[in-house]
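Subject: sequence -> structure tokens, single chain

Hey, anyone have a minute? Need the predicted structure for the following. Not urgent.
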Amino acid sequence: MITRVKNVNGSSRFANPVGYDSWLDYWEDKSGKTAKRCSETDCHLLGRSNLVGAHVQKVNSYDNNWYIVPLCRGCNNRTDEFYVEETLVPVPSNL
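Reply:
Had a minute. Here:
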């Protein structure tokens, strides 16, 4: 499913969930998938070493929750809205 999102500013201050080495590890565990490429629809960067578990919010939605999705470091720094085609995993509510 393709979803329009934007990055959450300042989310890097949140530590990884307990028991996970990174937000990307958390995404893989909760989605049941292995991150292999950037999820941004127009970015084709491959390789897990280039990816982070990025905090995003859906655009044009009543859903104000935060989600994790694999993005390359460049797309993780974007300030505009963009589309992703990967599972959005909800951020734990206890942050």
